[in-house]
Amino acid sequence: MEDIAQSREISVELKGKILGLMFFEPSTRTRISFETAMKRLNGRCIGFTSSGSSSVSKGESIADTAKMFEGYSDALVIRHELEGVSKFISDIVDVPVINAGDGAGQHPTQTLLDLYTIKNEIGSIDNLKIALIGDLKFGRTVHSLSNALSLFNNVKIYMVSPPELKMPQEILHDLNMTNVEYVETDNIEDVIDDVDVLYVTRIQKERFLDINDYLKIKGAYIVNKKMLEGKDVIVMHPLPRIDEIDGDVDDTKYNKYFKQAANAVPVRMAILKTLIKNNPK
Ligand code: NCD
User: Fold this and answer.
1) What are the angstrom distances between the C-alpha of 138 and each of 82, 85, 148, 216, 226?
2) Atom 8 (ligand 1): residue with closest C-alpha?
3) Rg of the chain on CA atoms, in Å
4) Alpha carbon of 238 to ligand 1 centroid (Å)
């Protein structure tokens, strides 16, 4: 946790700078860790935490809201339930824009902290064998992570999901184009002996059009201590967890998900420093 301790040291890096947090969709870790990162760098934050608490609820367009924030902030962090909204905003404002999750699309800063955690815990990302488990269709963290893993050497991805929640074709297409080896299965037991990392995800209830479809697959995968015993594996999760990792894993050496969440602060400090300090505005 040396990096986290370092991140606690007060720094004057972004003194006087303001980060605009535009969270149209709920968030705990991402929003709070961006806020913590900005404050650790001596900067400040403004923003809203739901559409209901912004003028979007009065009918203001996202474009107008973003234009207001551009005038108030040195960078924007956007979370929205629709894919492509961060990209849209980045096209119409001149300050740096960070995608903090766009619907079932992407979540790139989560990926940076995931890679940082893997590197710290395993030593290398090259030659990694990783199982992505759960909702690979709607889970944006696994989309960004798969894309990023293709930048490393000799990575093998095991995609474990119910047939209804398989990895989208466009992500598989990207992996094919970059020659990343992957296999798809619906059974954790098929892969657990082969992998270095179990990256578990929540079934994204809020993205189902019919709640009955969610209820049919809810609880499809539960990782517990007994399954892990004797295995050389770590367990990660972007959180929040519902029931997909049993509480009995929390006090074991396999649990890296809380450390992963804490790693968000130094990683997001680095992102903010890079984008704001180096931006001439
Ligand atoms: C994830 C997200 O919002 O995509 N959480 C996070 O940012 N740490 C995962 C999720 O909501 O399941």
Assistant:
1) 12, 16, 17, 16, 28
2) 238
3) 19
4) 6
Residue 231 has pLDDT above 60, yes or no: yes
pLDDT in tens, 118-137: 999 999 999 999 999 999 99
CA distances 121 to 130, 145, 158, 198, Å, are 13, 17, 19, 13
DSSP E strands: which ranges in 209-278?
Answer: 234-236
* Cβ–ligand 1 contact at 107 (below 6 Å): yes
Give pTM, 2 decimals.
0.94
- Choose among 190, 191, 194, 133: nearest CA to 161: 133
CA atoms of 41 and 250, how far apart (whole Å): 31
Ligand 1 contact via 110 beta carbon (within 6 Å): yes
Instruction: Give the bridge partners for 97, in sequence order.
Output: 76
Residue ranges of E strands in 146-259 = 156-160, 181-185, 197-200, 234-236
Percent of the chain as helix, strand, coil, to the nearest 5: 45, 15, 40
E strand segments, 111-155: 129-133
| DSSP, res 20 | E
- Cβ of 266 closer than 6 Å to ligand 1, yes or no, is no
DSSP string for 121-153: HHS-STT-EEEEES-TTT-HHHHHHHHHHTTSS
Quote the DSSP letter at residue 211: H
Using a pLDDT cut of 90, give the percent of the chain over it: 89
Question: What confidence tier does 50 reach under pLDDT thresholds 50, 70, 90?
Answer: confident
Distance (Å, whole) CA 60 – CA 85: 15
Angle of helix 29-40 relative to helix 264-272, nearest 10 degrees, comes to 60
Among protein residues, the one whose CA lies closest to atom 12 of ligand 1: 202
